[in-house]
Specification:
2 domains; alpha/beta; about 160 residues; 3 helices; N-terminal domain of TfIIb
Length: about 160
């Protein structure tokens, strides 16, 4: 079964203009980031690729945890992308996912190890990770904790 996705875009002007995209639940202004000499309004392809990779990874991880009957007390993610600009050539080099999985206080002893294994496996299973494989290095640096253990941060990422 195939699932088509559609996006409509409008771009009026030259390189430093802005445009708009509409892809179902994603409607936003787009432009070149200020750091790359653009106006920096709205989002940009670099952020959108990072967003696609991060959300795909997070949803895949949540599904894998659920299939393993692990219900985290909290599941958060911080992701970072590195884009290199050398001789005016832009290269999307790397994405690092840093998931934080906080297990329930009554988690079974083996669940920490399973959660860590799944945190790494989710990256290889994610459709977006597979789509960019060989072009963008993707790393996973998980933190697995048990609710109520010493040193656990209670704030959101």
């Amino acid at each position: 079964m195939k699932h088509p996705f559609h996006l409509k875009a409008v771009w009026n002007g030259g390189r430093n203009s802005e445009g708009h995209i509409d892809a179902g639940g994603l409607r936003t202004v787009i432009s070149i980031p200020q750091e790359m000499g653009g106006p920096g309004t709205g989002t940009n392809p670099d952020e959108m690729l990072l967003g696609a990779a991060a959300t795909c990874y997070l949803i895949t991880l949540a599904a894998m945890l659920e299939r393993s009957e692990i219900v985290p007390a909290q599941l958060t993610l911080a992701s970072e992308a590195t884009v290199d600009v050398t001789n005016n050539v832009f290269t999307y080099e790397r994405i690092v996912h840093r998931p934080r999985i906080v297990l329930q206080a009554d988690a079974a002893p083996g669940q920490l190890k399973t959660a860590e294994r799944l945190a790494h496996k989710a990256e290889a299973s994610c459709m977006i990770s597979r789509a960019v494989a060989g072009n963008v290095q993707i790393q996973t640096q998980p933190v697995i904790e048990v609710a109520g253990e010493e040193g656990q941060a209670q704030e959101e990422l």
